[in-house]
Amino acid sequence: MKPNILLITTDQQRWDTLGINGNRLIQTGHLDYLAATGTNFTRAYSTTPSCIAARRSLLTGQHGVTHGMVGYEDGVEFKPEFTVPGLLGQAGYQTQLIGKLHQYPQRKRYGFDNITLSEQIDYRPGSPVFGHNDYVDWLHQKAGVDADPNLNGMGANSRLARPWHLDESLHHTSWAAQEAAQFLTKRRDPSCPFFLHLSFWAPHPPLVPPAAHYDYYARRADRWSPTLGEWSPRGEQVPGCQPDGNVGPFDLDGMRNTMAGYYGLVNHVDDVIGFLMQRCFLHGTPFANQPTYIIFASDHGDMLGDHHLFRKVLPYEGSTHVPLFIAGKNIKLNGQRSEELACLEDIAPTILDMAGVDIPAAVDGRSLLPIVQGGAAKTKRDLLFGEHSGFGANHWVIRGGHKYIWFSATHEEQLFDLAADPGETKDLSADTAALAPFRDLLSDRLKGRTDYTFDRAKLKPCANGQPAVFWPGRN
User: Fold this and answer.
1) Which of 39, 182, 228, 314 has a Cα-to-Cα distance from 377 of 20 to 30 A?
2) Which of 30, 51, 308, 411 is catalytic?
3) 364 and 321 in a common domain
4) Residue 268 bears catalytic tag
């Protein structure tokens, strides 16, 4: 019997916003329990950390360089040779997406049998890339045509946060979980296995969790502060700072309010995952005895004020390091923690391996299933490349316990010992001898590229100073 496969993804969730990953402030009991019963991959990364590129990697198992998008580009149609839902459909699976797909054009199914689509919580009627929103249509049916999810005024990339202004049952996160429960209990074909991708918008801004969740973290905000490296600036936020600006300095009280909204959204996701597990997998429910794999991940993280930076696309841990665990129902798994280096490209081949489907040669990732089943990785990975174009255009290399960063616009370099300094607080790039092997790796990686030129003569180690790519003239 082929297993059912449930892929749950969040948007813009950092690795360290799960209790099982060491966070003692956040409440994620349902997710923590699932992670503890399966394999929790503690070194998982988004190699192109923004929405569209990362989701192309989820669909195909390919790195951004392979699938053709190494930055954020709206309105570009993706024409892959294959997708995970397409291959699973050919193998007899019923395939369904609920929530965010973030590919173009909207409504293109990319191999899914059906899509219940909502790219975001906010409403952008007439937008060629965001205009279709099944959540908003549902909201208008439930609460009337005057119900507007944007009325709280919080922006789609803003640091500002406040409680959700409508009833909790009308929240985008609640809607997505209810749609998933409806599919699993009432709308699926019982004669075949399913692949469901439940794709939450949260905790991506707007930072508008239900009041109970916002209030809980607002009352405890003084227990939290962003991480500041020795190399990051100090000082006060400039009055009139743009609410969605991604470079500080930021006001500490303001970032604590941001945290309350962000953590509240994660907590709300955890709550509805609890609802979904009870509704669909308890004794007496349709899947109580069916083998089902459950994969949880996020497309990328959020800097959340670390080093006075905000949002994604950057090479630092807050932006690139993501949660990833694989659990199951009615599948014998031993709870374990894996420190194998993993990435989003691994999810596609892992899913195909679970379903007994051949993995295409063009896939860059590797199946994590042998590790999940208690064995060892077929190929030991000790090297990972990541990059992102646009703002702060960067390339990064993880080898062993170290991360090397190169910013192409300024040719600046940083080096961090992640094993000893997971917060990336001390830049070791003053040690030019330590940089040499990483420079060789990146130089070889970029051979033949026309969009970047890695010129060794122009390299500038930041040497624990402030990168001019973010703070010109400060170094």
Assistant:
1) 314
2) 51
3) yes
4) no
